[in-house]
Amino acid sequence: SRSRTAWLTHVVLAAGVVWIASARTQMHAYRLGRRLLARGDLVAAERYLRQAVDLGPATSRSFDIRGDLARSLEAQGRVGEALTTYEHMLEQKPYYAPLTHYRMGLVCTKQARYEEALQHYRAALNGRPKWAEAHLNTGYCLRQLGREEEALTEFGAALSLDPSLATAGARSPQ
Predict the structure, then answer these.
(1) How far apart are the C-alpha atoms of 173 and 81, rounded to whole Å?
(2) Which of 55, 110, 112, 149 could covalently link to 26 via disulfide, CB atoms 3.0 to 4.6 Å apart?
(3) How would DSSP label each residue in 8-25?
(4) What does the DSSP 8-state code read for residue 58?
(5) pLDDT tens-digit profile of 44-79?
(6) What is the pTM for the complete model shown?
(7) Which pLDDT band holds residue 171 (cuts at 50, 70, 90)?
(8) Which SS3 state, helix, strand or coil, does residue 171 take?
(9) Rg (CA), the chain
(10) Rounded to whole angstroms, how far apart are CA atoms 77 and 60?
């Protein structure tokens, strides 16, 4: 029953025990992984998210699972593994390439790998040309690379798409 599953989930989270329900194993592992990720228990979250990836077929849900796994790896400072996970996501679901490239751009930006980040933001914009945040982050990378004129063009594009970003031009991408 639902209350028993909720109780078992709570016990598992409290005890840190590796346990997977037999019925909906992929979903249960995914939910536990997300909860642990939200709590900041990155190592345990990674363990459950990897189990969820291994337990299920390549579906849109497994795309979400891999995205959370990549965020967990990045938060642990394992940037190379995070980027590799995103690359697997590109192969799995090309339809989501703009979002995946955007996330890869964020990872690279946080590592001050601005040229690489710029390539990812531009790939994201190829799929979604009216994505204001991608234009903003492209501008940020261009500014960091000393390409001020190009940066201003990107900031202008971002503002024309979303005027609420007017105060965000100087901040690091989020």
Answers:
(1) 21
(2) 55
(3) HHHHHHHHT-----SSSH
(4) S
(5) 999 999 998 888 766 667 788 999 999 999 999 999
(6) 0.78
(7) low
(8) coil
(9) 19
(10) 26
Q: How far is CA 162 from the centre of its chain?
A: 22
**Tokens 């590796």 — which residue?**
18
- What does the pLDDT look like over 72-122, one tens digit per residue? 999 999 999 999 999 999 988 888 899 999 999 999 999 999 999 999 999
Which residue pairs, CB below 8 angstroms and at least 24 apart, start in 112-118?
112/144, 114/141, 114/144, 114/145, 115/141, 115/145, 117/141, 118/142, 118/145
User: C-alpha distances in angstroms, 93 versus 23, 77, 90, 123, 124?
Assistant: 26, 25, 6, 15, 14
Tokens 């390539």, residue located? 119
